[in-house]
């Protein structure tokens, strides 16, 4: 039986298009070097639009790394590859997807905060930081700053309440208000030098400050540039530099700790585990108290909905004291549902808390039992909120 030989350049345009999709961008570029017929097919911009969409989430208009529009998707892809040629391409795609998730959520839900994100830093900017602080940033951290150089908060927000626009967000209970933002490289340099000078840390420790609370309550995040692990300061930070790791990963993955931290934060925002809540002067902020079950418990009694959740407070934790080792804050939110509770055939439009009984358990052990008159709350038409701190 005689078989017919069909050469690659003898195939139709549609077949060549699907073959190029299977080959991927790198091999498609090689295919274009064979002859004019294959080059014309490999240069088809709809093909490169697919590559841009798959690798870089670029779907609307082709653009370079700084957002400037390019003449084609092929040119856009080429500029991206050239700009990040010193980095592993799978890592570039991963970091880009991380920032795409965060920026898309901010654009949809918190545009005021999205406007604080700065354009990516240059390689020379990163080199300047490394020279100033005598460190070498992990590759994934460099890429995070290449795509976005932290946040530049409005100057008029630098008050005791801080800026509400922190990407990482925080929580509020009693007079404890935290709202964390990502530092741009210039502030990383300044705050790291200040940290080394005031806390007596050795300049050879290789810790840099990458995120901080904009409020008067101090909460600092540190990156160890040698191991790549990310840490947050505890209550003993100012006295002996005590920190705890933010990401639990095997040593082989520690150099991506900051990236893992931001990826998890983006996942929680995207899935609705955390979202915006008005607090501290009725200003919306990203609030870290979990919203959906099982991280948030909900019960309805006589038309009143009770929601309870807790968040870890590392800056109040003390790893040297067993009784105060880990601190948490809990949030109790109460609201009268729209259908209300019908008493004496009359729908209720309001209700009042006159007594509360909180039983706080940790590992099935009661650590706090509050049975007393009602707490002072906020009287609003939407669910009232009140925070209280506990420790285990």
From TrEMBL:
Residues 298-392 form the ApaG domain. The lineage of its organism: Eukaryota, Viridiplantae, Streptophyta, Embryophyta, Tracheophyta. This is ApaG domain-containing protein. It comes from the Eukaryota. Keywords: Ubl conjugation pathway. Pathway: Protein modification; protein ubiquitination. Coiled coil: none annotated.
């Amino acid at each position: 039986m005689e078989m017919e030989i069909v050469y690659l350049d003898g195939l139709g345009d549609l077949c060549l298009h699907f073959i190029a999709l299977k080959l991927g961008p790198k091999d498609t570029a090689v295919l274009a070097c064979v002859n004019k017929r294959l080059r014309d097919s490999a240069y088809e911009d709809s093909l490169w639009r697919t590559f841009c969409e798959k690798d870089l989430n670029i779907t609307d208009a082709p653009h370079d790394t700084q957002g400037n529009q390019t003449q084609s998707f092929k040119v856009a892809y080429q500029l991206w590859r050239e700009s990040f040629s010193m980095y592993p391409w799978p890592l570039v795609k991963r970091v880009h997807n991380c920032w795409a998730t965060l920026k898309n959520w901010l654009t949809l839900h918190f545009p005021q905060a999205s406007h604080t994100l700065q354009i990516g830093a240059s390689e020379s900017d990163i080199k300047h930081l490394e020279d100033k602080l005598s460190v070498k940033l992990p590759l994934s951290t460099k890429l995070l700053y290449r795509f976005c150089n932290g946040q530049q908060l409005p100057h008029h927000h630098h008050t005791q309440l801080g800026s509400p626009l922190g990407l990482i967000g925080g929580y509020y209970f009693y007079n404890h208000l935290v709202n964390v933002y990502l530092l741009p490289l210039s502030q990383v340099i300044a705050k790291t030098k200040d940290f080394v000078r005031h806390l007596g840390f050795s300049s050879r420790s290789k810790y840099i400050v990458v995120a901080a609370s904009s409020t008067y309550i101090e909460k600092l995040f540190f990156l160890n540039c040698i191991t790549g692990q990310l840490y947050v300061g505890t209550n003993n930070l100012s006295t002996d530099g005590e920190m705890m790791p933010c990401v639990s990963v095997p040593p082989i993955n520690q150099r991506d700790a900051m990236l893992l931290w931001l990826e998890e934060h983006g996942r929680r925002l995207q899935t609705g585990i955390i979202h915006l809540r008005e607090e501290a002067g009725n200003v919306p902020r990203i609030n870290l108290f979990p919203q959906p079950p099982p991280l948030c418990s909900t019960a309805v009694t006589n038309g009143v909905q009770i929601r309870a959740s807790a968040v870890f407070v590392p800056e109040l934790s003390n790893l040297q004291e067993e009784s105060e080792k880990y601190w948490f804050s809990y949030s109790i939110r109460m609201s009268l549902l729209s259908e209300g509770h019908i008493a004496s055939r009359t729908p209720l439009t309001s209700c009042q808390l006159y007594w509360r009984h909180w039983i706080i358990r940790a590992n099935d052990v009661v650590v706090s039992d509050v049975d007393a008159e009602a707490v002072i709350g906020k009287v609003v038409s939407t669910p009232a909120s009140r925070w209280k701190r506990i420790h285990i």
